[in-house]
Specification:
Structural class of chain A: mainly beta
Order of helices and strands of chain B: EEEEEEEEEEE
Number of domains of chain A: 1
CATH architecture of chain A: Sandwich
Number of helices of chain A: 0
Shape of chain B: globular
Shape of chain A: globular
Distance between the termini of chain B: 29 Å
Strand content of chain B: over 45%
Radius of gyration of chain B: 13 Å
Order of helices and strands of chain A: EEEEEEEEEEEE
CATH superfamily of chain A: Immunoglobulins
Oligomer: heterodimer
Helix content of chain B: under 10%
Largest interface: A-B, 22 and 24 residues
Number of strands of chain B: 11
Number of strands of chain A: 12
């Protein structure tokens, strides 16, 4: 079946350092949608990035990700972490057919001064 | 996010019955109920499109959804179980293509 893998459960880093969160997926669908959702403590998930175009970089709020269908990856990156980036980040997969959004297990990012 | 409102915010139940309510003011066609247990990602429970139930995941029969109109969603819960303790999020999207989900602030259910 379809699945999303996020290898890091917790990422701790110092403010100003780069961030990279891994996301790989498995799907039988040739045109998957990939998403990054961010969830701050006691809040609901909020869309950060989305893509369905192969090899095209997408950016929002300083974060960027590129969907690579050849490697089934959609890694999230930011060049310089801020304290406000501390949150839970979910990579998610869907297609256009109304199937459930499949979430990865999530990566908690903790940024310290 | 005030464009998707959920009530109540917090709910503490014994074995009582209760309903969760959701209303979206975005004009979206698709509405969802998600359950998020502690330390876990959100899991889809139900998906409605234009008031029709499209997806009904493996959910205990004590959870009954209702979509009285395309902007409102209800989740009726009867005889809750401790494993039901979680945050229940309502979400919506323009279509069922899942292009983007907008989540409500959630209802935190605590089962005594």
């Amino acid at each position: 079946g379809d699945s999303v893998t996020q290898t890091e459960g917790l990422v701790t880093l110092t403010e100003g350092l780069p961030v990279m969160l891994n996301c790989t997926y498995q799907t039988i669908y040739s045109n998957p949608f990939l998403f990054w959702y961010v969830q701050h403590l006691n809040e609901s998930p909020r869309l950060l990035l989305k893509s369905f175009t192969d090899n095209k970089r997408t950016e929002h709020q300083g974060f960027h990700a590129t969907l690579h269908k050849s490697s089934s990856s959609f890694h999230l990156q930011k060049s310089s972490a801020q304290l406000s980036d501390s949150a839970l980040y979910y990579c998610a997969l869907s297609d256009q057919g109304g199937r459930a959004l499949i979430f990865g297990t999530g990566t908690t990012v903790s940024v310290s001064p | 996010n005030t464009k998707i409102t959920q009530s109540p915010r917090y709910l503490i139940l014994g074995r009582a019955n209760k309903s969760l309510e959701c209303e979206q003011h975005l004009g979206h066609n698709a509405m969802y109920w998600y359950k998020q247990s502690a330390e876990k990602p959100p899991e889809l429970m139900f998906l409605y499109n234009l008031k029709q139930l499209i997806r009904n995941e493996t959910v205990p029969s004590r959870f009954i959804p209702e979509c009285p109109d395309s902007s409102k969603l209800l989740l009726h819960i009867s005889a809750v179980d401790p494993e039901d303790s979680a945050v229940y999020f309502c979400a919506s999207s323009p279509t069922i293509s899942n292009e983007r989900l907008f989540f409500g602030h959630g209802t935190k259910l605590s089962v005594l």
